[in-house]
Amino acid sequence: MSEDEREKVLTQLGRFVYELSTLRFSKIGSVFLSERGDFEIGQCLRVATLLYGRAERNVPRGPFSTAKDYYSVFAAILQAHDIWHTDLFGGPFF
To answer: Using CB atoms within 10 A as the burial measure, which of 26, 31, 74, 80 is most buried?
Structure first.
């Protein structure tokens, strides 16, 4: 890939990321295509909420109404037992 092509791809990618960052939804969770053909927010399918059997341990996955509710789940997970797991250290907050 030439330097010009690389610059073009990175510029386009930057525009896509910016456009996605401007979208706002009423809840925090994962975005799904509904049967009606529009988008809706459902349970968070984030890897950090599903690893190590958390789904079976009833870790709340939302959707969440506030950022406080969303981040409180991750803080509780880290405090409870996963804070030193190398795959998760700091990861839930990225």
So the answer is: 74
What is the H or E stretch that residue 8 is in? helix 3-21
Q: Domain count for the chain, please give it.
A: 1
**What pLDDT is recorded for position 54?**
61
Please give the model's pTM, rounded to 2 decimal places. Answer: 0.60
Reply yes or no: is the peptide bond before residue 92 cis, omega within 30 of 0. Answer: no
Domain that holds residue 72: 3-93
Q: Find the mean pLDDT for residues 7-25.
A: 94
40 burial level (CB within 10 Å; 0-12, 13-18, 19+): middle
CA nearest neighbour of 78 among 56, 38, 49? 49
